[in-house]
């Protein structure tokens, strides 16, 4: 009995020793994120998430918007009950789960390549600028990385069992259901992940690819039973609640309206893209500069260093890697998710999903570079450690710069609201805007009423004209957001009041906002001199008693 207890203790010690690095890496990732905890709700999606906690979960009224992100909202709701702050609960759940994602990433990289590759991949994940930034925002993208990486890990574990069974036939007899169990877990986690972001549906072909390979060992019926039921259980855990709670008719109607708006009207799919080449350019910019933290013409100069190292690592990876089952598996991940990005959704937050997997490729390439080029050279080991250290340090410095901006400097959208509140009275003012309308509901609810008296949601200047025509009492101050389309038609009537900006890598979509006053024709005496927004000098002028200020939030 004593010998059995001693054996059990030794096994636990070995297990802890083997997992010491990933556990420490999880803790390090968590601490670094907590040190730069975000403070602002700065765009449409994050406001919807916040209202889903503070005002009640209701996808019919965009609290949050369809499909409701129920898995993310459930864990954030738990945090909200404990913390009492909607924004802190949303951010903390993202910080926690994105940190936990380090463990499955380490295990996946170790099984596909080596322990050294897994260590480097985890470090690159922790210091990646976009992954770090998204963890500090009240959004679901960093949160969802845990489900994505873990689902892919279990799919690979199932694939691994197939390979072992081919080499060791008796293995299958002893561990008959292991591959199917892993496939079921992969399906379940992917199903849960879709409840975080529907985008993860693009990874379903990875699971189908593994299921296709399993057909040579198991019957199709068993594969469908295990994998299909696992996926169905994951999806049902949140979808059934939504359908029952909001009724099938209302849920389906909201689904159709959301799909029409998101993919055909104002979404970021290939259908709503004017130029395919422009779309490819935008994807390249978002992937290279934002997601990978590499150099671009508007990026931090220090990024030249990691760019050179990444290029070298990719060259050696494709030069030395052998085409094998694990590489085919990884190719399926990149191929199908890449097609989703190319044709369906190309936002930075969607592209970011590929970063952890590319971190493995880069890490493997660096190890190949060391093995085949530096290892046998004098000072080769020192050169490799120096190069790797500079790579990691440059990424870390850039990431700290970005998350510090996110934490310490007001987003332009919030600065614009504060400016309007401080300089105008809502009784004689009307602000025409796009997504800023939702932010007003969060930061200045007193400006929002059911009659849209003070803040009016509109996308085009034609909507402004039509609304002003129907008003019996015209507001004294008509303010216009720079996000409205068709402003060039009324350039002589728009007088710029303020410009709000922040580093483009700290907030990509609303890094620059301008506020205008829409003058009546009777007040126009001479053409308005248009000023170049690229001029970043602080300018203070007086125009009819109102301060005209250009804010440079980056200084």
Notable features of this structure?
555 residues; seven-stranded mixed beta sheet; 23 helices; 7 strands; 62% helix; disordered N terminus
In brief, what are we looking at here?
The protein is an alpha/beta fold and 555 residues long. It folds into two domains: 369 residues, no CATH class; 139 residues, no CATH class. The chain is built from 23 helices and seven strands.
Describe this protein's structure.
The protein is of the alpha/beta class and 555 residues long. It folds into two domains: 24-262 and 279-408, no CATH class; 412-550, no CATH class. Helices cover 62% and strands 7% of the residues. The protein has 23 helices and seven strands. The chain has a seven-stranded mixed sheet, with helices on one face. β6 (540-543) and β7 form a beta hairpin. α2 (20-35) runs antiparallel to α5. It is globular, with a radius of gyration of 26 Å. The protein starts with a helix and ends in a 5-residue tail after the last strand. Mean pLDDT is 86; it is low at 1-13 and 526-555. The chain crosses the membrane at residues 20-41, 90-106, 112-127, 139-159, 179-212, 224-244, 300-318, 327-345, 351-370, 382-403. This is Putative membrane protein. Pfam families: PMT_2. Its main location: membrane. InterPro entries: LipidA_mod_glycosyltrf_83 (IPR050297), RgtA/B/C-like (IPR038731).
